[in-house]
Amino acid sequence: MSSVRTVLGDVRPEELGVCDAHDHLFLRSARLPGQELNDAAAARAELAAFRAVGGGTVVQWTPYGMGRRAADLPDLSRASGVHVVCATGLHQAAHYSAQLVEELRGGLAEVFVAELTQGIGTSGVRAGLIKVAGGFHALDAHARWTMTAAAEAHHATGAAIAVHLELGTGALDVLDLLCGRLGVEPHRVILGHLNRSPDPVVQRQAAEAGAYLAFDGPSPAHHATDWRMPQAVRALAEAGFGHRLLLGGDTVIAGARSVDGGPGMPYLLRRVRPRLALELGEELMDRVLTENPGRAFAVQWR
């Protein structure tokens, strides 16, 4: 039987409730100096705020080496009543020191498998998905290395692979590599940030291939995404791909949290959901936020 691996153990997909399919409680990167998500009290308050507007599950895409604070996640989940899914995986090289990347050479897939099956460090928390990243309109050597390791870990465990698309680009290159060359079934791939490059042809091709399409996060001012996203998801739904849509908040810096004055996790349900319900209808919106994540992240664990 398939289950979703949360930080408190495996649960049935139908137990997730309303799901933020891509977000962060903790995150640290050299690319975001001074903007770390590293405050457990703020994370707890953010989960409580999400719960208060009807949220049931948060999938944290923070991968290896970026301040996941996995040991803190079980207590936060219990206190808030929100399921939390934790990621393994590796982001773009720019987020890490060259020394750390070199230390992982030759054993990256093994790290992913261990975190999915045994636990992250001494926390006992097992990851529930693999997160990797592409580049801008291309896959560099680092991306190919991490995706190859992700595919190996997927084949060993069954875990889904979530992919950061840089500014929403490179979706088809990712699918060519993961599914075409590395044998990952398309429905085990979740493509993130497709809203950041609102190309309806690419989105349609990715959906036709069988991947899940994640529209995640309110846009910065220079991204023509928020106002185009409703028509994009409507076009995909009308083409028969409503079952492939996922929604997330992608809170990556402290100032973006609702408890710090930003939109935060509640924004997904306070603002995004009602806006998209006008395009998709209430029934499909409910499925996008509940049934679709249940299928996307559920695994018959090996």
List keywords for this structure.
six-stranded parallel β-sheet, metal-binding, three-stranded parallel β-sheet, hydrolase, single chain, globular, Phosphotriesterase, 11 helices, alpha/beta, 302 residues
Secondary structure layout plus pairing:
Layout: E1 4-6, E2 9-11, E3 18-23, H1 40-52, E4 55-60, H2 73-80, E5 83-85, E6 87-89, H3 98-104, H4 108-117, E7 129-133, H5 141-157, E8 161-164, H6 171-181, E9 189-192, H7 200-209, E10 212-216, H8 229-241, E11 245-248, H9 267-280, H10 282-289, H11 291-297
Parallel strand pairs: 3-4, 4-5, 6-7, 7-8, 8-9, 9-10, 10-11
Antiparallel strand pairs: 1-2
Helix pairs in contact: 1-2, 4-5, 7-8, 8-9, 9-10
Protein name: Phosphotriesterase
Family: Belongs to the metallo-dependent hydrolases superfamily. Phosphotriesterase family.
Modified residues (N6-carboxylysine): 131
